[in-house]
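FAQ: What does a ligand-bound record look like?

Like this one, built around flavin mononucleotide:
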Amino acid sequence: MIVYDLLKPLLFRLNPESAHNVAIWALRQGLVGGYQKADDPILATRVWDMAFPNPIGLAAGFDKHAQVIDPMLNLGFGFVEAGSVTPLPQPGNPKPRLFRLTQDAAVINRFGFNSHGLDYFVNNLGQRTRRGIVGANLGKNKLTLDAASDYEKGIEAVVGLAEYLVCNVSSPNTPGLRGLQARSQIDELIKRVLIAREKFGKKLKRLPPLLVKVGPDLDESQMADIAEVALMNRLDGLILGNTTLTRPGLSSLDADQEGGLSGAPLMSLATQCLSHFYRLTEGKIPLIGCGGVANGKDAYAKIRAGASLVQLYSALIYQGPSLILTIKAQLADLIRADGFSSIAQAVGADHR
Ligand SMILES: Cc1cc2nc3c(=O)[nH]c(=O)nc-3n(C[C@H](O)[C@H](O)[C@H](O)COP(=O)(O)O)c2cc1C
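The answer part, i.e. the structure of the complex:
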């Protein structure tokens, strides 16, 4: 087993994308691991009638091609979201397209959905050997005009292979994608993907929950529209959210790079957005809080703001996989300190 603290200086000497590829390679070889420990029972939670051993999940983008789902579950994540995957393979944007903002504990990326395509993704999903909750995060090919048709293709391909599905309409790096968050577009998209799930999932015992992942840069009226459309169409949940185009008080050299910002500087913006959506949806649909989580306090803040589940990615780059154990231990302590006996009791506590 390789200890991340030893590996990190070497990884940080590589360019960030190569470092990521080395990490994926090491995970596939079984070289990273050994952090497994049974979860504290207070962290167990039920969402969409599924039993999550803990509420801390891996956000989309780390395992875009569904290559390391089992190793990531083995590291202690309560669930893993693979993708975004596009129907056809596509290269994404020219390199460099991933930047470490070390002084800010942040990352900027403009990958633009580099994807091996659905065939490869589906094949990998089919090779899972371990139980665990896995989400399939779906994107669209750059050149597809009818975006909904790409999400329909994604649903057709993965519907029986993932525990939940996500339509990602909030990557800032695919031209026009975020326009799908406008009221009429999101309404049509949600209607079409729900029909696709019904159609392609009809032989399944139960349909996987379908979520939409939105960005943190929406204005009040856009948020209100999305919340209303989600409730009207009985969408199963929302992920709040993706990376931001804003640049809140950064000091790193690469702060002006184009792309989506993630990591610590996103925490406050993303949590405000989550909190707003919890109020708008009146706690009626589960929300996944994502953006800037780096410790147990951050995860707990997301839960109190209204998240039933939490996801992270960027903090993993800076803290390595032992972060997962640390966050879970801190979160369990915080839940107990406030007198709650479950995660569910703490969800939305700030609004009461
Ligand atoms: C390098 C990188 C690639 C990402 N790729 C995707 C993606 O393909 N699909 C997606 O929905 N989100 C993607 N994200 C966004 C993350 O899932 C997450 O929403 C965002 O990074 C905020 O969480 P964090 O601050 O914990 O990183 C990516 C993030 C990073 C840093």
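Follow-up question: can I read anything off the structure? Yes, for example: The pocket of flavin mononucleotide is lined by residues 59-61, 64, 83-84, 98, 107, 109, 111, 137, 168, 171, 213, 242-243, 262-263, 266, 290-293, 312-315 (CB under 6 Å).
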